[in-house]
Write a structure and sequence with these properties.
about 210 residues; alpha+beta; Beta Polymerase, domain 2; five-stranded mixed beta sheet; about 20% strand; flat
Length: about 210
Amino acid sequence: MITELNEEQLKMLKYLEKCRYAKQMLESQIDILIKDFTFNHGYNPVEHVKGRIKSLESIKAKLEKHHKEFTAENVIQNVKDIVGIRIVCSFLSDVFDMVYLISHTKNIIIKQREDYIQNPKDTGYMSYHLQVLVPVYLQEHAEYIECEIQIRTVAMDFWATLDHKISYKFQKDIPDEIKSQMFDYAKIIQELDKKMLDLNKIVQKYKQEL
């Protein structure tokens, strides 16, 4: 029962509920953007969209990593990726089309950008990250909740999954030998994306001639 929760637990519960509302709002807005793009351009640039709410265990672990107590205030102030949306696109150009569409949507405020495609991480991880503020309309007022959007290609998504699993195995820094090989293999993924984009351009050229 909610009435049996103490003030701290109630504050945490209320914030997580707002995060769920923000996830719904963001997923709905992205779905509209994709459908509108598909209607106007004749093809869907997105393979799939996946949203998640960070578990309490993950939230707690993130705070502990930064030597902070697991309190509602620390969660609100320091954990900015409780709501996560991953957009997986077919081709590299589609990634930047989605970045453009989201960036020019009035209902979403861009707070920060991280282009790990042009500037991959030291393991070779590639993706385009957007930290955004999403309005949640409550009974008394509107409140903005910070969310994270990751936009990448299918090839990048495959690599990111492996990157996460390998990184998770090491509590501290990844050994340089492994990190170096990961970066080299990520370059292969990058080249594959470029080749697939070139192939798609050729396909589009033939379609226009038909």
